[in-house]
Write a structure and sequence with these properties.
about 400 residues; alpha/beta; 4 domains; Molybdenum Cofactor Biosythetic Enzyme, Chain A; homodimer; 7 helices; Molybdopterin biosynthesis moea protein, domain 2; elongated; 28 strands
């Protein structure tokens, strides 16, 4: 029996952990102008109708619709010009019967007007008299008060990550300050006796710390706050101490083990000693990333990632990201950006295991992207630096054939 | 003849502008740890081999390959245990014939060893003697010096936007500072007599400024520096003055016109007066965004966008973004994140015009996304706030049918 069959699937592992979590999130006041990428902490309602006045949606003439009834090119209606509506002003006249007013897109309709006829459907006959070539229905080419957003309506639901469009929408309503979720604090610990800081020259046998930086970059890209705990040697005392400090200071901890098996086991042991229920998941049927650990010390999440930088970063994209997003307060409306592409070669896989293959995208002459799998013996981090995204090979299959259309998750 | 046929296509408009541009970009020193999202200003080469020593890729025993020649479960090879390679250390022994050494993933091979046999293919027979059940080839389960990255090799090409994987790769090589492109300065000017700042309560006929904030958010999301010039009334003098100031201080200017036609024409007139060649494009066969203007004053780009907030933001995503990316120094490896989805209803379009339709994504039971077009009379900014992305309707077609698989460009 392949060993992966005895492991939990990535989906089940994540569901198991999430079933234990019900985070209480705190919020803070944020200037809307500074809120790009932040997540709303409450439903945001409009305090006003939008628009607040009846607006024209075209350049043309405001009129009373029935005055244009039956008008056509061969039989125009003739209306008297009552004036021009200046942008940004309330018209200083009302419209009488058989009258019209020059109006620009966004302009305010005069009283009694109930439609706008487009400029191209009119002609100036003589000074003060306009020919109308088209019958216009009440409400045509204009918006009623509150038609876009009624007062009190929810304009942006809780749990929305704010994009340029939402920032603009809030400004349109004059909402210049909002409540956003306080970003969670996520601590990152690198362990391993062979691991040294990047600014030091490694002696033979040593390697520079990569995981603190790849994971830190990803976590801060997601919008959480990163707390770096540096590199901890592989022993019970040091590891336990830093985990205890981290649990006090952070909402989550991510520990990347040294690359040896004993280092990984030590991580799990220590996580079990720090609170209940301890380790929930130890080993996931996913490649790369099999030695992944999910643990809980009371209500704080600890995640153990493999020391191998490719495994650690792939698992961070696939399994850590949804956990962070829960603490970011993100609702269900989230998408993982991707590009559809055709696989350029066969990719073998083991049935029962979920594989994620790094691929590089190449745009074909037909505009269709090709996904070129990147293989490497060493799982060096440059494997991912060369890749544009990851392709999932689902557990039931034994691989994907060249030519298959796949969805490349961008990294 | 539909009027759009006489306009330039978005593709040609962009190509025309880009053909005039050959920006000289400046660069600055950036700490690698702070370089996420920035763009490399030069090819980055490795100053060292990676790995710098021969490393094991598994947990097992380092050995001389020929000593395991012919070994199998029924006929194991017996090797003497010479010692254990400690993580982060140079082994303090060399391997002799018929000897092996316990080694962990990432450990340094002792001298004379040329392969590693995995732990699961071995067994400890008695203290100091290891049974090997598998014939091992030279080079198996190990990486040679420089196999990942040879000294002097280009590891990250110029024009790369740094993601977590690149940050990690640089750290692996001890490159803690790099040269990145200095973000371009992009000035944003809102014009229109009816436009007021968001913190003011509009009088009847006035609307709050949206475009400064949506465009500012998008530009800063892309990685450029935003310079806000606020709201300028629709007259020649004020507009020309602010354009002159902006041209001095910024690399580009983006002007959003008031929503009336006269305001848009004024923008083009002023752009023509400020330098050569002046207006290159005035009107593009795209919806929304037909009144888009591209102009050049000597070597500085000026972009005129429609005052309508939806048009302005859609054009910023579709046409302004590639221009900004040129000044960000981004190479050709850039992708516009998207989600494939099935259109839920027919969307009509006019042949000869490129349409971009806002859609909201809904995940179907089968895991396939459905793209629900969002229509709205007023082109209010909340149309885009409700949307997850945009769907392109290519110019030759007269629309897309329900059920068509489309690529939704996320916004």
């Amino acid at each position: 029996m392949p060993e992966f069959l005895s492991l939990i699937s990535p989906e089940d592992a994540l569901a198991l952990l999430l079933s234990h979590l019900d985070p209480v999130l705190s919020s803070e006041d944020t200037a809307t102008e500074q809120a790009l990428g932040k997540v709303t902490a409450e439903d945001i309602c409009s305090q006003q109708d939008l628009p607040e006045f009846r607006r024209s949606t075209v350049d043309g003439y405001a009129l009373i619709a029935r005055d244009s009834h039956g008008a056509s090119e061969s039989l125009p209606a003739y209306l008297e010009l009552a004036g021009e509506v200046l942008m940004g002003n309330t018209p200083d006249f009302d419209l009488g019967e058989k009258e019209c007013a020059l109006i620009h897109t966004g302009g305010m309709l005069p009283n009694h007007a109930n439609a706008v006829v487009m400029l191209e459907d009119t002609q100036v006959l003589e000074a003060g008299v306009i020919e109308i070539y088209r019958s216009t229905a009440p409400g045509e080419n204009m918006i009623e008060i509150g038609e876009d957003i009624p007062e009190g309506g929810i304009v942006i639901p809780k749990g929305t990550r704010l994009r340029p469009a939402e920032i603009g929408g809030l400004m349109a309503l004059g909402i210049t300050e909002i409540k956003t979720i306080t970003p969670p604090k996520i601590g990152i610990i690198s362990s391993g006796d062979e691991v040294i800081p990047p600014d030091r020259k490694p002696r033979p046998g040593e390697v520079r710390d990569i995981n603190s930086y790849t994971l830190g970059a990803l976590i801060s890209e997601l919008g959480a706050e990163v707390v770096h705990y540096g590199i901890i040697p592989d022993n019970r005392h040091d590891l336990k101490e830093i985990l205890q400090i981290g649990l006090k200071e952070c909402d989550h901890l991510i520990v990347t083990a040294g690359s040896s098996a004993s280092s990984r086991d030590l991580t799990a042991d220590m996580m079990n000693e720090l609170g209940d229920p301890g380790v929930l998941v130890h080993g996931v049927s996913i490649k790369p990333g099999k030695p992944t650990i999910f643990a809980l010390a009371d209500d704080k999440v600890m995640i153990g990632l493999p020391g191998n930088p490719v495994s650690a970063l792939v698992i961070a994209y696939i399994l850590v990201r949804p956990i962070v997003e829960l603490y970011l307060g993100l609702g269900t409306r989230k998408f993982y950006p991707s590009i559809p592409a055709k696989l350029t070669m066969n990719v073998p896989s083991q049935a029962g295991r979920e594989d994620w293959i790094p691929v590089r995208l190449i745009k074909g002459k037909d505009g269709v992207f090709q996904a070129n799998p990147i293989f490497g013996r060493s799982n060096l981090i440059f494997l991912l630096a060369k890749a544009d995204g990851l392709v999932r090979i689902p557990p039931p299959t034994t691989g994907l054939e060249a030519g298959t259309t796949v969805t490349v998750r961008l990294i």
